[in-house]
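FAQ

Q: What does a record look like?
A: Structure on top, sequence underneath. For example:
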């Protein structure tokens, strides 16, 4: 597939945010650090509440020495023997499974500080633990989710005009982008435009090369309606809007095909015919990848001037602090962030646009 191999990484850690501290983010962070050698993880520094991490380790009955550090550079020296934490203290006690909106400012501050660390060169990439959007919104958080907030930070911190962050879900089995994300299903048809599909397809195409080393850029585009509209009998969007976008993507050199009926696009044989799928809405994209790779899928935000990955799951409050949380998705997110940062550094590339 014409991959470009990453070069040796720069001497800066990854910046890992704590997410909602009442969720499993603390659990899987501790587990990831414990797996640092067997999983061959690049060093990372946690932006979060050091006391809460120590308390969660004690509750889980695992030994993880936590070291508070002044910044990412100090974290590199500590990582071998201690979990390095740049303190972002929570104002209220952290109780597993019981989110507290009064801790929302600390959750948001951890994300902002991680982005600032990358901007300054102190960190190479941002990896975020899961947040609870409703908890943050209860405290006045104005964004629908991580993706949109990171777009706002790209504009504010990096001076990117009209940042267009794109959610990409990645695993060994599948890479897929939802065109529309956190909106009601009834609003999806109006949000699907030729311009939006073309803009998102271009971002995806560049990311396939810059971030994943894939030169072929084969993008399968789903239809919106059942059977991709059945020649106009089941809806007009597929022929009138999506087909025009596919033609425009081909005109700029992308190997875009479709619109494909979504129900026949994700089986094993079909997945050999493309490098990524551009789907029309959230569940059309996320159901197949979470079925194929629930424990190992990674949420990636492309279209930004910095690398950001995240586990492809939520806060799982019900199992926080029980020892039942699995860290594979976070481990994969850390690995992918490392590879993406190396590739971007090697290519000297900025944001995928």
């Amino acid at each position: 597939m014409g991959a470009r191999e990453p070069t040796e990484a720069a001497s800066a850690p990854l910046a890992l945010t704590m997410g909602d501290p009442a969720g499993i983010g603390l659990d899987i962070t501790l587990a990831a650090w414990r797996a640092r050698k067997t999983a061959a993880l690049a060093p990372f520094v946690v932006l979060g509440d050091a006391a809460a991490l120590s308390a969660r380790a004690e509750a889980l009955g695992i030994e993880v020495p936590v070291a508070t550090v002044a910044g990412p550079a100090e974290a590199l020296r500590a990582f071998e023997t201690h979990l390095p934490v740049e303190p972002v203290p929570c104002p209220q006690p952290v109780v597993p499974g019981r989110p507290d909106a009064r801790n929302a400012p600390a959750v948001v501050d951890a994300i902002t500080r991680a982005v600032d660390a990358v901007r300054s060169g102190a960190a190479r990439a941002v990896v975020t633990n899961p947040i609870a959007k409703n908890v943050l919104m209860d405290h006045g958080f104005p964004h629908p989710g991580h993706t949109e907030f990171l777009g706002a930070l790209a504009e504010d911190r990096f001076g990117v005009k009209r940042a267009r962050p794109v959610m990409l879900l990645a695993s060994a089995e599948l890479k897929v982008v939802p065109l529309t994300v956190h909106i009601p299903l009834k609003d999806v048809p109006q949000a699907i435009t030729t311009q939006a599909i073309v803009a998102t397809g271009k971002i995806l195409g560049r990311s396939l090369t810059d971030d994943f080393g894939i030169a072929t850029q084969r993008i399968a585009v789903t239809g919106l309606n059942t059977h991709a509209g059945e020649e106009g009998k089941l809806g007009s969007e597929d022929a009138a809007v999506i087909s025009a976008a596919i033609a425009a993507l081909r005109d700029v050199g992308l190997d875009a095909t479709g619109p494909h009926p979504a129900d026949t696009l994700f089986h094993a044989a079909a997945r050999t015919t493309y490098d990524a799928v551009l789907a029309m809405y959230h569940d059309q994209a996320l159901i197949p990848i979470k079925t194929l790779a629930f424990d190992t899928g990674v949420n990636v935000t492309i279209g930004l001037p910095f690398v950001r990955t995240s586990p492809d799951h939520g806060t799982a409050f019900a199992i926080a602090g029980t020892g039942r949380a699995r860290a594979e998705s976070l481990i994969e997110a850390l690995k992918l962030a490392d590879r993406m940062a190396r590739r971007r550094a090697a290519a000297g590339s900025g944001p995928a646009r």
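Q: Is there anything notable about this one?
A: Residues 1-9 have pLDDT under 50 and may be disordered.
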